[in-house]
Amino acid sequence: MKAVLQHIAVREARFASHPFFSDLRMDRPIEQVMAFAPRLTFWVMTFQDVLRLNAHFIQDAHLKALATRHHAEEGGHDQWFEDDIAALTGGSLSIGAMYGKAHVKTRDAAYAIISEVYRPVDDRLRIVLLWALESTSHVFFGRTAVISAAQGADERLKYFSDHHMQAEAQHAMFEQELAAELEAMELSPEVRADALAMVDRIYTAFDTMFDGLRIHLERERAEEPAAAHQAPPPRVAAMEEDVDLDMEVEIVDVELLEDDEAPRARDVAVHRAA
Question: Which InterPro entries does the protein's record reference (predicted)?
Fold first, then answer.
């Protein structure tokens, strides 16, 4: 299992270097800095079911108790998130918006992660899954807590502030217990290979999610005054959301509009996979 934990540490460090984190800027109001936050909604809501179902499928009584305890300690964090979104935006996200185009990468990532729960795997890999999820959260919340504190928003926010980090710190003893359990596990080569592949899939899903979140940051920079940065035309900005650069250009009869609007018939150039 040590090889698996080392691999998680490597992937965590790589995730911490995702361009999303370096693109966050603190030289503007917290509402603007955190404007990407609503796009996390689908994942935050799905996360609670990931923990619940993961614990449900574990057969080993001891490991099941660990996973159940972990789920219980994460309870209520989704309400913190909803409260923070209300504080940041003055309202809540509609279901229609959550299933709109702007949130597609978050949904894709959430589906990929929850699919891991339904794989018929060794119970020990379900504990590895929890550890991988914890490692990504440490990176993300470590960054948002710094932003919240720098903006003097710790009294307004819980999910994105040091309040969340303090809650996690209170679970430190449990995390130490979980780490000890993992380190003591001996995995066969086949199970170890499955664990490593699962960790890679989880981090790939998070890379996808944060690629989507980064689109908002890129759009903000594009909308800065022309003297600082020339903004692209709205049609181009809208098209960029789902474009990969290494693709061929093809003419199709559709125009991508703002995030959650329906397509409108018109010949425009878009990128389609070669």
Answer: Haem_Oase-like_multi-hlx
- Give the containing element (helix H, strand E) for 250: strand 248-252
Sign of the C-alpha dihedral computed for residues 87, 89, 95 and 101 taken in this order: negative
Angle in degrees, 0-180, between the axes of helices 104-117 and 41-57, rounded to the nearest 10? 0
> Tens digit of pLDDT for each residue in 67-91?
999 899 888 888 999 999 999 998 8
Which tokens is 1 given?
Answer: 């299992």
CA atoms within 13 A on the CB side of 8: 27
Average pLDDT for residues 6-15, to the nearest whole number? 96
Amino acid at 77: H
Cβ neighbours of residue 197 under 8 Å, at least 6 residues apart? none
Domains of the chain: 1-15+31-221 (1.20.910.10)
